[in-house]
Automatic annotation (TrEMBL):
<dbReference type="Pfam" id="PF13414">
    <property type="entry name" value="TPR_11"/>
</dbReference>
<dbReference type="InterPro" id="IPR050498">
    <property type="entry name" value="Ycf3"/>
</dbReference>
<feature type="repeat" description="TPR">
    <location>
        <begin position="145"/>
        <end position="178"/>
    </location>
</feature>
<feature type="repeat" description="TPR">
    <location>
        <begin position="111"/>
        <end position="144"/>
    </location>
</feature>
<protein>
    <submittedName>
        <fullName>Tetratricopeptide repeat protein</fullName>
    </submittedName>
</protein>
<dbReference type="Pfam" id="PF13181">
    <property type="entry name" value="TPR_8"/>
</dbReference>
<dbReference type="InterPro" id="IPR011990">
    <property type="entry name" value="TPR-like_helical_dom_sf"/>
</dbReference>
<feature type="repeat" description="TPR">
    <location>
        <begin position="247"/>
        <end position="280"/>
    </location>
</feature>
<dbReference type="Pfam" id="PF00515">
    <property type="entry name" value="TPR_1"/>
</dbReference>
<dbReference type="InterPro" id="IPR019734">
    <property type="entry name" value="TPR_rpt"/>
</dbReference>
<feature type="repeat" description="TPR">
    <location>
        <begin position="213"/>
        <end position="246"/>
    </location>
</feature>
<keyword id="KW-0677">Repeat</keyword>
<feature type="repeat" description="TPR">
    <location>
        <begin position="77"/>
        <end position="110"/>
    </location>
</feature>
<keyword id="KW-0802">TPR repeat</keyword>
<feature type="repeat" description="TPR">
    <location>
        <begin position="179"/>
        <end position="212"/>
    </location>
</feature>
Length: 289
């Protein structure tokens, strides 16, 4: 099993540039997928990590090659940072944190290493350490957008929404093409009941990354809250085109059909949701009528 990490697609390579970040979509699952929705419902495990299948032999060979790079370049912060990402991708967070720590020891102003260590610390449940590292990353480089995004998601998870919004505004200012930052900010607007602003941010997230399911799901929920059921149905179907095993998407598709007066399709969708998650609350409530 491996972890699809956050920010952008990442291929591990000994030649990765200095400042390599945890990449892919789990530490986007960490950064993004902790989706507090309009309903306040959060599926178990979301927001922690998105585990994906990885060839163990390939992962082991990659780690071996990165270890050899470190043997040849023992004073390279970039080499330790890159191997730390490789460890994190296979769930070895303790070793990842150790490598990021060594990168920081070699280069105390390495904002990417601080950010990566913070993200790995969050995966290990060490939120205080993560917060300190995000702060250090921003002190080292006030223009390092991923640190603002990572800190914002930690703050959001802790209920510090005003501070989280400030960080997301900075992340978007520094990197206006970052879909994750728009999505995360939209979730805060959604949580506050400002669904029109939430939809605008989800629009921006989808424009920048049309192949991620979470922004479609989130936008669909805000559209339901706004009474725009036809558009919500389109969004839940789009989310299901990416991940048709999402009980939440099936449940909310059912709710949108229900609100739109199509009880038969609503029941079919609720049943699909409950096949995937027998405890899915929206679907259970929907079938009870």
């Amino acid at each position: 099993m491996g972890i699809r990490l956050a920010e952008t697609s990442f291929r591990l390579s000994p030649l990765s540039p200095r400042g390599t970040l945890l990449s892919g979509a789990a530490l986007a699952a960490l950064l993004l997928a902790g989706c507090e929705t309009a309903s306040g419902i959060r599926p178990p495990g979301r927001g922690i990590a998105e585990i994906t299948d990885t060839d163990p032999k390939a992962a082991s060979a990659n780690l071996d090659s990165l270890t050899e790079v470190i043997r040849r370049n023992p004073s390279s912060a970039e080499a330790y940072n890159t191997r730390g990402v490789a460890y994190a991708r296979v769930g070895r967070f303790g070793e990842a944190i150790a490598d990021f720590s060594q990168a920081i020891k070699i280069d105390p102003d390495n904002a990417a290493a601080y950010t990566n260590r913070a993200l790995a610390s969050r995966q290990a449940g060490q939120n205080d350490a993560a917060r300190a590292d995000f702060d250090h990353a921003i002190q080292a480089n006030p223009n390092h957008a991923p640190a603002y995004l990572g800190r914002a998601n930690l703050l959001r998870a802790q209920g510090n929404l005003d501070q989280a919004i400030d960080d997301l505004n900075n992340a978007i200012r520094l990197n206006p093409e970052n879909a994750q930052a728009f999505h995360a900010r939209g979730l805060i607007h959604q949580k506050r009941g400002d669904n029109a602003r939430a939809v605008s941010d989800f629009d921006n997230a989808i424009d920048r990354d049309p192949f991620a399911a979470a922004p479609y799901q989130a936008r669909g929920e805000s559209l339901v809250a706004l009474g725009k059921y036809d558009k919500a149905i389109e969004d839940f179907n789009a989310a299901l085109n990416v991940d048709n095993k999402s009980a939440q998407a099936w449940a909310w598709l059912g709710l949108a059909y229900d609100k739109n007066g199509n009880r038969q399709k609503a029941q079919e969708s609720y049943q699909r949701a409950l096949q995937l998650d027998p405890q899915q609350p929206v679907a259970k409530q929907g079938l009870r009528g």
